[in-house]
Structures are given as structure tokens and as C-alpha cells.
Amino acid sequence: MTANRLAESLLALSQQEELVDLPKDYLLSGSEDEGDNDGEREHQKLLEAISSLDGKNRRKLAERSEASLKVSEFNVSSEGSGEKLVLADLLEPVKTSSSLATVKKQLNRVKSKKTVELPLNKEEIERIHREVAFNKTAKVLSKWDPVVLKNRQAEQLVFPLEKEEPAIAPIEHVLSGWKARTPLEQEIFNLLHKNKQPVADPLLTPVEKASLQAMSLEEAKMRRAELQRARALQSYYEAKARREKKIKSKKYHKVVKKGKAKKALKEFEQLRKVNPAAALEELEKIEKARMMERMSLKHQNSGKWAKSKAIMAKYDLEARQAMQEQLAKNKELTQKLQVASESEEEEGGTEEKVEELLVPDVVNEVQMNADGPNPWMLRSCTSDTKEAATQEDPEQLPEPEAHEVSESEGEDRPVAEEEILLREFEERRSLRKRSELSQDAEPAGSQETKDSSSQEVLSELRVLSQKLKENDQSRKQKASSEGTIPQVQREEPATEEEEPLLLQRPERVQTLEELEELGKEECFQNKELSRPVLEGQQSERTPNNRPDAPKKKKKEQMIDLQNLLTTQSPSVKSLAVPTIEELEDEEERNQRQMIKEAFAGDDVIRDFLKEKREAVEASKPKDVDLTLPGWGEWGGVGLKPSAKKRRRFLIKAPEGPPRKDKNLPNVIINEKRNIHTAAHQVRVLPYPFTHHWQFERTIQTPIGSTWNTQRAFQKLTTPKVVTKPGHIINPIKAEDVGYRSSSRSDLSVIQRNPKRITTRHKKQLKKSSVD
Amino acid sequence: MKVKMLSRNPDNYVRETKLDLQRVPRNYDPTLHPFEVPREYVRALNATKLERVFAKPFLASLDGHRDGVNCLAKHPKNLATILSGACDGEVRIWNLTQRNCIRTIQAHEGFVRGICTRFCGTSFFTVGDDKTVKQWKMDGPGYGEEEEPLHTILGKTVYTGIDHHWKEAVFATCGQQVDIWDEQRTNPICSMTWGFDSISSVKFNPVETFLLGSCASDRNIVLYDMRQATPLKKVILDMRTNTICWNPMEAFIFTAANEDYNLYTFDMRALDTPVMVHMDHVSAVLDVDYSPTGKEFVSASFNKSIRIFPVDKSRSREVYHTKRMQHVICVKWTSDSKYIMCGSDEMNIRLWKANASEKLGVLTSREKAAKDYNQKLKEKFQHYPHIKRIARHRHLPKSIYSQIQEQRIMKEARRRKEVNRIKHSKPGSVPIVSEKKKHIVAVVK
Predict the structure, then answer these.
(1) Sorted alphabetically, which InterPro entries does this protein's record hold (chain A) (predicted)?
(2) N or C: which end of chain A has fewer CB within 10 A?
């Protein structure tokens, strides 16, 4: 609608313009006619007279008998000719003249167009103006959209927005207000002035200025070109470096590194020849790097990564390789450089040997095994295993062994015992591997067995390491150096007996029965879960007497649920002579005993089970008995409604859904809505959240400093709006957000824009209507 | 052999300087700090309760006027100075820190209709019922000098409002039409009209400074462009708008205080639907002013209370009232966004805290951290019914309380009737009009 109108108005305007052009042409043609007006008239008369002479073609002249309305100076009657008067005829001379053709054309053009419409009324024009102005303003305002959106979504807004920059006056300004007073100052200033040292703003001496000016154009150009070249080269180099840095290939980097190392070595060689002093320094540097490496734990397979690899190494060939690689690297880095002069080397070499002989290096311990580190040894046993390892491959490291042999003969036996243990361990591992294979064949429960097997491995390892440790300790004690082995052997069965006794208590069995009532399947599940663990433990405790184990095992199986409920899994007791740890254990036991005595009266577990049973009963849907005694039959004291009737009117409650805690022995889940907790629960999902888990997650992440580090706490508790007290917050400005504010002031624009419509407005109008 | 020993590295517990924080080793293992949600919930509950305990927003009452306070103005450069004009033509300048009046001027005969300060803070303008516009110096006259205005402009009609441009020496008055004046001239450089009713207030846009908004008594709000010297658009509401206020941080947003108890926040580019309808007042809203942060605004109502609304919420977050405060005519939010001033019928100007429970004065860093933490907790648990109830609870004077109840009933009845009408007529014949659109009569281009 509006567009239509706009178009109309435009049309009107353009027509007006054309009308303005027209008269000019008219004038031209008019003046041309004017000159021979009189002559023409006479000529016309003459022509008429001649034509009237001719009889045939005589025209009937219109006779005017009376005054008629038709005759007027305004209306040209076409009655005489008997045809409609055409506008063009009036202009047509007898002879066609070229000068009038243009006029005709213009006339035709005018005729082809419609008549000019009335100009729009004032209201309409104003409305159009308003609309145009509004669109323009809206466009101006839309530049604020991103800013506003950003501010609305901002995590934190700090007001005032504009940064107050500290006003630092340049030194020259400060100096200008200062005058030399003391004689010393004056002297200094005199000197400065003599040298024409600048004190004021451009810190250039006249000489410098002159030199600056002296630089010719060509020189400047050359210099510029040079600079450009340098910059280009630099950028190429940077690009290249960046490209190379991006290459992900490990092989490539390895090659590059090797090349670098080689180059360095070559340089070093050269340096040695040319400048021995510098070479020495270099050597020292290398030596220092080696020392650092030896001191650090960097490639010692002790880091997090290495530990994780060590765990994986058993199964993963790659991990093993990676570990070996790292160790090789360590070896390489800690190797002594063989470049010093020969005489020195000899001396050093002997010294080293002596050192090695004296102190079997703990740091280099790992690399001593040439065949690569064994992750098991690394992980479980530390220094003790090393000795065992040396025992195993005696030909590789003859010196330390000899050393040890010379040290004491009494050590022999324990070492032998260790060997036995190790062998045992090996055997068991092979056995387990076999069993694993067989288990893998079973389709069901493979996951569980795997878990259990891994647990087995772990527990076995633990036991083994402990044994080794204790043996070591026992070896250290001189007094018991002889009698350790029998003692150990004596101790073993004792602990075995002790634990089952601890576990089997009559009341526990009773509670188990109660549990069995509750639900049988879950018990089975739990048993199955725990059995392998227990088996593992047991197998360690009784490595020899397997055949007579099953009987005991069964009993323990019955009890293991209780274990889960109450006591933590029985920790493996140390076997050998009482040590510090043993003492600690005893203390713990005492503590437990005391607690047991203190709470002798209340059996928490039984209470809990009772409570749970009651809860289950209460939650069961009840049958409804609708029998009315005495209705339809005899009633009275001692008379009961018949069984048939009772059966008929008893409405059995439908079986409810299974309880959620059916499979959870030590949990009671209340499935009823608790009104006391409901007061603290949100009933409907709050607005910005679209799903309940979103809301729950926001609630579950704590924001307090109890759960978060200081920095995280600060970040989590940043307020949305920060204002500085006592600071005026000014409205946002275009400059604040990086826009260029309009340079023209509003006032100047107004003064150029008086109220009436200007040509500029017209143009705008046209533009907008075209759009 | 395994050697066990204590290892102490002083780097782990010794401060480098005494200004550093004490190094406190902490174990963040979640198993050591169980029940995080319940514990934080309790903390949030306590924080909410304490907020209500410490909510004492009223700071001071400035008395001295001998008639109702009709208009207020802030000093643009000085936080402690405010100006007020009363219904007896008296203008007073106050010092907020000392809480006393520092200057009194008998500026006009009859009401002081409007007052505004120049952007530089050296002078201020007043308009009054005596058809004059007067410019005054901010500093008082020297000893023995007469208290005289710098300039006086005699107009033909009564001016009902005035506002100064934010950057240039231009001000706008309203009355029969909106006039834009150069400070140096006695005739307006431009006057704009649209319609014939008298215009009650005019406000410059603080961001895009060439824009103006005005509201007239024929229920409309008109926007003008000073540069193009033309009105832009007009929106007609259900009832008369008393005044408008532009958002100082969002160039195209303004809020209108309406007689129909509501406030309407508009995006000036889309006037046919307000961005938000703010409803909580139970009587005509007389004045509105934005917080300089642009996140909230305060509105003064005829029902003897002022309310603080978040820009994006339709319900107020706070209501202030005192027994002695009568119809509040004008309200202003101070430029540091910490305080609110309101002038009322009973000749007093009151000073309130913008945040009722905020502690005044300098906070230590620990206090600040605790405050922020509590704030976040309150935000986190704000949807919990127990906390929501406590946070929302406000004591109201009986008149307001009963009026709220009454209006709730009226609204419910109206809603029911509408629902019934829709239910019992041909589907589609009764259009469902949203609450936002309900109050807009028309937008005139």
C-alpha cells in the first residue's frame, strides 16, 4: 500500500520535471513561426481564391446565419470539415516543414502519458518523512545490537566501563616548570646548554636533527628496500619454521633430532681441534647435563606415565617397548662421554670401576639389566629384587655378585629361599595363564573372572613382595639369621587358622539365614563376585594343602556376605618376626577390641535387617476384607463367617512393582514421597533449564572453597555486576565499545536542517521509494 | 632398605612476603568433604535468612521543602549533590554526605515543573508554571550578590518538562510542543509536534544523543529525531504514560511508567509489542529511572511505595515504603548505582540503598569473598521452595497488601471471563491476545 503510494508520488514528481522542460521547446518553435505570419495569411487567401475558381473541387463554405453557441474563441468547431479535429492538424501547415516534426513528437509523447496527479497533502508527506527518518534511525541503532547482546550475556560486567588511564606527564613537561637553583644544578645545565643537549620535547640534539635531514632520498630508498628484504626473509624463515613445527610425523622429528645431535658432535670435534679451551667448556656442559639427568627422575620409569605403562606392559607389547625405549634413553643420557684424553680416561675408568665395586649404584640399577627392565620387578620389589635378579643372571654382572659373596656367607640361604619363591611365582603365573585360557573359552561371566584374576595377580604380588621384604629384614637381624625359615614355616599355619576362626561366629551365621530369607539371588551374585577374591587369598595362604581346602572354603563362602556387610576384607598378616608394622597392627586390633566391647549390646546389623523387613511389609499392598459377619447367616459370639463367604468378599490387592532395594542388601529405599523432604525439593523445572539433569548437575557442582581450589572458587563466585563505590557510571559511549562516534555534532546537523523539506530530503524520499 | 623420613620443603609453607596469603595445604579429596549439596543448601538458606535480617534499606530523609517535591535531578559530576524542585517554586540543592540543604532558590511562581543539570555540572535549568525557563549557576552567589538566574526565557505557553542534551549545549522542553533550544538563543531552534495534546515529559537518549522520547496526555509516546527534525513514531497505549526513561546501556530500550499500574519496556524499533510488561504496582506509576548499569530500574508509584525491577523480569525484586512516605512523585537512581532517592508529596526526599541488605563502607577481601559466595549460593538455590519463600517475603502496608489481593481477584476474574468467552464462541472468532499486546492500542507511523 505504502509502496504503491510512494511510487505514485514519484511518478508525479518526474512528470512535473518533464513539464518543466517542455515549454522551452515550445518557445523555440513559436518564435520561428512568428516571422512569416502575415505573408502566410495572404498566401492562404490567394490559394483559396484559386481553388474556388476551379468548379469541381469547390468546397462548401460554412455559412453563418445566426449567432450560435458553437462559435467561440475557445472552441474550435470542426463542423465544416465533417471530421474530428485532431490536434496535430492545427499545427500542420500546408507544406510539411521539418521544424514542426519535433513539436509533434513531443506532443505525442505528452499525450501518451496520463495526466499529472495532485501533489500529496501535507499529512501524507509528513508521514513519509517520518517513515524514512525512522528507518534511518533504526539502522543507526542496529549497530548497538551486538554490543547489547554481548553485555546481556556477559559473565561479568565491570562498571564504570571506560578505563581511567593514569595521567603520566612526560618528563619534558615536568622539566619545563622546574628551574636550576643550586650552583651544581646550574653548572650541569650550563654544560647541557653548551652541548646543545635538548631539554624539551623532541629529544634530539641539533647534530642528530641535521643528520636526520641529511639522509638523501636515494639513501632512504635503499635503506627501505633493505629493510623490506630483511623483513621478507624473516617472514619466509618464520613460515618455514612454522610449517616444520606443524609436521606431526615422529619419524621426521627423530631424524631431525639425530641430525642436530650429529651436527653438534661434529662441531664439538672441530672445536676440540681448533679451540681446546672452548671444547673443555663444552664438555663440562655436557657433563653437567649428564649429572642433571642422573639426578632427575626423568627417564627412570618412575613417572605417572611410566607407572601406567608398567601396568600395561604385561599385556601390551608396545608399552613394554616404550618403557624399554625410555630406559635406553636414560642410559644414553647418563653415559659418560668418551672423549677425554687417554691417560685421564684410564685413571677415571679405574676409579669408576672401583666406585661401582664399592657402591652398587641405585640410580643405575635399572640399566644394569641389559635385557630390558622387567616391569614386575620394577613395580613390586625395589632394591631387594635387584639382588634376586643378579642371582638369576650371574654371568652378566659378575662383579657385584662376587662382592656380595665376599661380604657374608650367611646371606646365601635367604637368597636361595628367594629363588624358590620366585620360581613358585613363575609357576603360579603359568598355571593362571592356562586357567585364564580355559576361562576365556567360557562365554558367560568372562568379565567377572577377568576382574577376579587381575585381583588375584595383584594380591599375589603383594604377598610376594611382602614376603621378600620380611625375609630381607630377617636377614638383617643377626640373631635370628639361622632360625628364620623354620619360624616362618611355623607361623604360616597359625595365621591361617586364626582367620577362619575370626570369621566364623555363630551370630553371623544366624544373620545370614535372615538374609537368605530376604532374597536369594542377590546373595548368590555377591558370593560369585567375592568368591574369586577369596579364592585368591586362600590359595596364597595355603599353597600346599589344596586338596583339603574345599571344606573350609565352603564355610567361608557362606560367611563372605557378612564380610561385605561388616568387616573389611581380611588383610594379609605379616609372617615373620614382629616388626613395626606388626606393632601397629596390634594397636589397631586393640582399638577394635575396645570398640567391640563398648558396643557389645547393640547389634546394628540385626536391627537394620529388622527395620528393612518391616519397611517391606509396610509397603506391600494390603488385601481388603469386605465380609460382614452375620449378614445372610447366623451371627454372634463365637460364630465366624464361612470360608466361602470370606473368600468371596476378600479383594486381593494386586502385586505391586518390585521394590527398588530388592537387590541391595544394605539399603532401604523409601518409595513413598516424604513430605518433610518435599519442602526442600524443587517441584517444577525452573525456567532456563530444559531438562532435569541440567538442573541437577548445576546443583550438584559445589561452588564453595571447601570443595574447590582458591582460584576455582574465585572464578565460580564472580559477581555478575561489579561497581566501584564512589565512581560515577556514565552511559555507554560508542568509543567505549570500539565504534567511531559520529563526528558531526547533533546541533550542527539541526542548524543545517530547518523544518521545511529540503532537496536532500527529496532525494532520500526518492531513494527509499525506489528501494 | 626403605627409609622413611619426614620431608619438609619450606617452599610449601613459607610465604615469600608477609603480604602473601598464608599457605594452607588442603586436601580436596571429595571423600573427605561429603554431603556437598546439603551443606551448600544449608549455607544458602542461612545466607537468605541473613539477607532478610540485614535488609535495612532506609538511610536518610532530607526535609526542608515546604511543599511536595515535584522533581529531582542528579549532579552529573558530583555524587553527593542532588537538586530538587518543589510545588511552591522552590529549588533546593542538597549534600547527601552531610544530609543537609546547601542552597535554596525561589526559582518560580507556582510549581517547578522540571529541573535538569547541564552535562558539565556548572549550571542547571528549571521550568515552572510561570511559563519561564531559567538557567542557574550551580555555585551559589558570592557575598552580597543577588540570587539571580543566568538566563531567563519567557515562553508563550507553560512548559511541563525539561531535559538537557548529554553532550552539547542543547536542551529540550515540552508543553504544547517539543522545543529544542540552543542555550545561547531565546527562540527554539526547532519545534516538533504531533497531535494537539499537551506533552508531559521529554527525555534525551543518553547513548544516541539525537533521539528524544516524549509522552503526551493523549495516551501516546512519541519518539523524535533531533537531527532530522522530525518525529519518528508514535505508540498509543491503553492509558496515559507519565514519563519514560531510556536505558543508559542499551541505546534502543526505554521504559514507560503508565497510569494503568504497569511499566512497559520497549525496543524503540518494534513498538507494537513491548519487550516486557512490569506489573506489581497497585496504583499509577509516576516516575521511573534506570540504574546506571542498565540492569535494573526503580519506579515510584502513587501508592506510596517505590519498587525495583530487573529489566528482564516482569515482577519487582524489591519494594520500599515507610509509614510517613506519601505519594511518591519522583525517583532517581544515583550515578554510582548504589542509592536511590525519592521525592514525595509530604515534602521529604528519602535516600535508600539500592541493595537492601548491602553492607556500606569498605569491605575487606574476606568479607567480599563471603558476600560473593553467599550471593552465588542464593542464586543457585533460588528455586528451592523454602528459600524462595524467605527471599520473596516482604512486609507491606495493609492498604497495599489488600489492594494487591483485590487486584489479583479482579485479574483472575477477567482471565476467567476471557477463557469462558473463548470456550463458548466459535473457534477462532475470539482472538487470544497476549498480555504484552493487550495494552497497545496502536502504533502510528
Answers:
(1) SSU_processome_Utp14 (IPR006709)
(2) N
